[in-house]
Amino acid sequence: MHPALAIPELQFAIACEVNLCPSLYWLKEHHDALYRLMMVSRSWKNIVEPLLWERMIFNDMLFLIPAWSCAGGRKVEITVHRAVTASDWESVCSRSCFTRWLYVDFPNFPDALDEDVLATLPPADVLFQRLENMTLTGPFVPPSLMSRYLVALMPHTLSHLTIERASFMLRGIPALVAARCVHLRSLEMRGLGKFVDSDIPRPSPCAAFLESLRACRELADVDIAFRAFEYSASYLCSLAAYPILRRLKLEVHEAKEEPEELGVHCGFPARGFVVLQSLELSFVPCRTVTAALESIGGSTQLTTIIITVDITDYESYHAIVAAISSAGHPAHLTTVQLYRYSSFVRRLPSYGVLDMKILTLLSRFRLLETMVMTGLARSALTINDCAKIASWWPELARLTLVTKADHNASCMLEVLGTFRVCPRLTELYIALAETERDDVYSA
């Protein structure tokens, strides 16, 4: 080994570079590389080992139990040599004390994890002394034993929790999981994916879970994405009551016709989300968007509004922009992004026009840094309009005003000249009116 590679600072820098793991799918290759590095020398081992165990899949940790021998694969196969005792978990604890991120994949729940093994499991705060980030997943309703393991593995140190197929994973244990989330700072919940309406537990445990989290004094970031039939209007009242909620992202899939039974549009309280800074709404009905913005009602904290919505007519588009104008405060709002999409193929209405009537509603937000508006049928903007837009928002760094038909619009030299008053502008896409572009081309 080259003498330079014995320098601890260089070893640590190299180990950190190897430790970069883009996703769970690369975790095995990432661990193999770290393991080879750890075998170089004792000094390398001392530096690399904590990094090797930082990100772990729970089933992989079972390989460390001396009472078992394990074979990997899509499902961990365990050969039992003797009964597991509390001392067997010491081998796991010597590594799991470094773990900060844990992925618990319940479809691969080994048969060997029975009641007797659960009784030997050390407290989660001992097993995972530094655990901050936990992901729970499973495609079916976990039986009672599996649910008890789930709760037993959750330490009180958790600050970030992701629950996939949450309506199933939380069945029977929402209050127990919430009790482990006293220091939770961010929550991500995913819906049932390909599962159908008949598969969902009734009522969904997610409502009780979100209600239980009202006691979390540190929860500031919530990202939930469910299918329409999984929603309950009570979710929104619970979220509005979180004392320091600063970011909310809400997705509703398959809400094509704004079904009355969805109830999301009427679930927002008249006033709430008093410290919200970022609101993201994706694939939700138009009425849900306006209800959410009205609930915020001129918040002095809001800096970011990002909306992706299926808008069928110009009036709905105008109503949403007007609601954005009412929800934001000129002293704080810096980002507005409004993306229009079609849930199915339809003729775009001829009156869906990107024009100054819509943009004027947002002219009072002088501190806007990002302004994105897409998806209307055609544009009516002129070069003179661009000059007026530039005077409204001198702090712009990104401006995108394009139509469905002209999504990759590029700017003419004359347009660029109007934005000289925006020194921070680095990204600019504008769709001009057809007649305006003809004039520019001829010039």
TrEMBL record:
It comes from Schizophyllum amplum. Gene3D superfamilies: Ribonuclease Inhibitor. This is F-box domain-containing protein. The lineage of its organism: Eukaryota, Fungi, Dikarya, Basidiomycota, Agaricomycotina.
